[in-house]
Amino acid sequence: xxxxxxxxxxxxxxxxxxxxxxxxxxxxxxxxxxxxxxxxxxxxxxxxxxxxxxxxxxxxxxxxxxxxxxxxxxxxxxxxxxxxxxxxxxxxxxxxxxxxxxxxxxxxxxxxxxxxxxxxxxxxxxxxxxxxxxxxxxxxxxxxxxxxxxxxxxxxxxxxxxxxxxxxxxxxxxxxxxxxxxxxxxxxxxxxxxxxxxxxxxxxxxxxxxxxxxxxxxxxxxxxxxxxxxxxxxxx
Length: 236
Fold this sequence. Notes:
About 45% of the residues lie in helices and about 15% in strands. By secondary structure, the protein is of the alpha/beta class. It has 2 domains: about 5-50; about 55-235, 3-Layer(aba) Sandwich (Rossmann fold). Strand 2, helix 7 and strand 3 form a beta-alpha-beta unit.
């Protein structure tokens, strides 16, 4: 018997387990249609979101040099949440509830895949991961959970929600400049506006990561950025 559930129903599931069960019940043909729709949406996002991270920033560390640095630990990694379903509720939804995924945009199937790509790269390269923090929004903690299997929610990582850019910077900058354990990398999974408020760089596309280095003086040095596909292609 062919079972086809509406994709919107799946996206409104409040947890990863419920979403995973629902996804398994979708026919292969319907999965193909969803994947094609996600691909079109991704291209539209890339064209709309400008300037791109790649246009604004030149990596200081690349390839094996970057891997060796991350293996030593002591870095802050900002990860923008993975790709979301475009047709979900937007941030201005008057019924938005951070504890209810049905009132928010959630990860698309590509978003799930990209988050897992990142986690697989960390595991295969044996990169040390300490604390993993996310905002309270479902798309960030889902990204963290899929990639690293753990997360702690921080309201300070939430999007602007009416705050000015200066207020947003004031609550996020102290997180990025808190010196991590020297043997571990700390990861923040958040939103584009928070990172841009701190660095003046728009983190695009969804799922992009930036590698940061801080010290006791509170300085912040941006060393590299990687998309999910670039994590996947990293080799020692």
